[in-house]
Structures are given as structure tokens and as C-alpha cells.
């Protein structure tokens, strides 16, 4: 087999694989969009391309007095912004300490970060529920946000620490010779150079409250405190509910804030993801 033929076959296989993955990913998305435009509410009567498409479900989500969709949307956005901001702040300090300082327990702390990533979140749900109940933060967005922030620290800190390790320590030393303190080095040198990885952390933590269902399901009880994933679940979970098309419309709108954040931070994502894993 000639090299040219072999190369053409490899390219063809790559394109076939990409086309297959596009169908796997795109088909459910097209069905969701199509369902949201169907005028009825039944899943079984919905069509991929409706004959008489309508925006009635989107209108219902925003205008009907019985819909709490706007409240759920507001809750999700608030939790997402708080989660992204405080996760970036805490992760930056933790990663900076592990990357630049030598202290007792540093090695075992890094091992602990790796170990904590091995266990699924569901293993700690009972403890989380009991803890939030003891401190009076059960069924509150504050409690949910605190769990999100704390639960992401091991993974985020390890990721950002790997990126900090790629920044030459000579920059720190030069700044200290010029009289810069620890905080000056952190804010004026490390953070500006770490924008790519911090953008990745911010995006991942912003997305979590929009797509996570399990944690809000355990913590939240009042419908006014629901996030989008939990609120939309109620459209199809009750015994006599059959609002699959409304569920589809609400699901489509979840992508709007995530897409906007992605568009603003996309220039950081590729370099951040690749550089964060170069050193451990």
C-alpha cells in the first residue's frame, strides 16, 4: 500500500468518525429544538420538523403566572456567577501556595487532592445534607453555592497548580528583588499570566449549576429556590405531567448564558486546557 493511499484512508476514517460523532451529538439536539417548536405537549406526538411550528412554549415560560421559570433562571445565574467567582479566587490562592511554597504537609496535601478526585460526589451526599441541616443552610442557594465551591477545589487547584508550575520562578525572584511582597507577586505577576487557566476554571464552574441535577435535588425543597435543572425536571416527573415540549424549550434556553460566557472566554480555553496539564 502506497503512502498516499494510506494517508487518504486515514483522512477518510477521521472524517467518517467525525461525521458519526456529529450525528450522535446533533440528532438529540435537533430533536430537542424540534420538540420545543411543536404546539402540543406530548412527547409521542411531537415531530422532528413540526408542520405548524410555534413559539408558544417559550412564551409560556416567560409570561404564564403559573411558571416559575424566570425564578429558576435567576437562581441558576446567581449561583453560577458566585460559584465561578469564588472558585477562581479560592483556587488561585490554594494553587499558588502549593506551587510556590514549601511547607509541612504539602506533599500529602497534593496526594489528598488526587485522592478526593477518585470518589464520586454522591458518596458524600448524606454528610452534606446533615452538615447543611446543622448550620441552617439546607434548602438555600447559599448552602448550594458553598457546596459547589468547596467540592471543586481539589480538581481546580490541581489544574491551576500545574499551570503555575510552568511560570518561571525567576519572575518571582526578580519581583522580590525590586521590593515586591507575596501579594504583589501573586496579583501583579501570577494572575495576569494565569488568565488562560483561570478562564477555564471560571467557565467550568459557571456551567455546573445549570446542568447539575443531583445536588440541588438533595438540598433544595422550596420551588422558589430551585435551579433550572431541578425545576425543569418537575415538568415531566409528576404523575399527571406531560410537558415534554415545555421541558425541551426550557432546556434550549439553558445554553444561552453558557454560550455567551464561552464566546467571551474562548481565546483562553485551548491554551488553558493544554498548559494546565503539562506539569503536576
UniProtKB/TrEMBL annotation:
Any GO molecular function: ABC-type maltose transporter activity
Alphabetical UniProt keywords? Cell membrane, Membrane, Sugar transport, Transmembrane, Transmembrane helix, Transport
* Principal location class: membrane
Instruction: State the InterPro entries in the record.
Output: BP-dep_ABC_trans_perm, MetI-like, MetI-like_sf
User: How does this protein sit in the membrane?
Assistant: Multi-pass membrane protein
Which biological processes are named by the entry's GO terms? Answer: maltodextrin transmembrane transport
Q: Which domain of life is it from?
A: Bacteria
- TM ranges are 12-30, 77-98, 110-135, 141-160, 244-264
Domain ABC transmembrane type-1 per the UniProt entry, residue ranges:
73-265
Family named by the database record: Belongs to the binding-protein-dependent transport system permease family.
Instruction: Indicate what this protein is called per its UniProt record.
Output: Sugar ABC transporter permease
Amino acid at each position: 500500500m502506497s503512502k498516499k493511499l494510506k494517508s487518504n484512508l486515514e483522512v477518510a476514517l477521521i472524517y467518517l468518525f467525525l461525521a458519526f460523532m456529529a450525528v450522535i451529538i446533533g440528532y438529540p439536539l435537533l430533536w430537542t429544538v424540534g420538540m420545543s417548536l411543536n404546539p402540543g405537549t406530548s412527547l409521542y406526538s411531537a415531530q422532528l420538523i413540526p408542520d405548524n411550528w410555534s413559539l408558544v412554549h417559550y412564551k409560556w415560560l416567560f409570561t404564564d403566572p403559573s411558571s416559575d421559570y424566570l425564578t429558576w433562571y435567576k437562581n441558576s445565574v446567581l449561583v453560577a456567577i458566585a460559584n465561578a467567582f469564588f472558585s477562581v479566587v479560592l483556587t488561585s490562592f490554594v494553587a499558588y501556595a502549593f506551587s510556590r511554597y514549601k511547607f509541612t504537609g504539602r506533599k500529602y496535601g497534593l496526594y489528598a487532592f488526587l485522592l478526593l478526585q477518585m470518589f464520586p460526589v454522591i458518596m458524600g451526599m448524606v454528610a452534606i445534607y446533615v452538615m447543611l441541616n446543622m448550620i441552617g443552610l439546607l434548602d438555600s442557594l447559599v448552602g448550594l453555592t458553598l457546596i459547589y465551591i468547596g467540592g471543586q477545589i481539589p480538581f481546580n487547584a490541581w489544574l491551576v497548580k500545574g499551570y503555575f508550575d510552568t511560570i518561571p520562578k525567576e519572575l518571582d525572584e526578580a519581583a522580590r528583588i525590586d521590593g515586591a511582597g507575596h501579594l504583589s507577586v501573586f496579583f501583579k505577576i501570577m494572575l495576569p499570566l494565569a488568565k488562560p487557566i483561570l478562564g477555564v476554571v471560571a467557565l467550568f464552574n459557571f456551567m455546573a449549576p445549570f446542568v447539575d441535577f443531583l445536588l440541588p435535588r438533595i438540598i433544595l425543597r422550596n420551588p422558589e429556590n430551585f435551579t433550572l435543572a431541578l425545576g425543569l425536571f418537575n415538568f415531566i416527573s409528576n404523575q399527571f405531567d406531560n410537558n415534554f415540549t415545555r421541558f425541551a424549550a426550557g432546556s434550549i434556553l439553558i445554553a444561552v448564558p453558557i454560550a455567551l460566557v464561552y464566546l467571551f472566554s474562548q481565546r483562553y480555553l485551548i491554551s488553558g486546557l493544554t498548559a494546565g496539564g503539562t506539569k503536576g
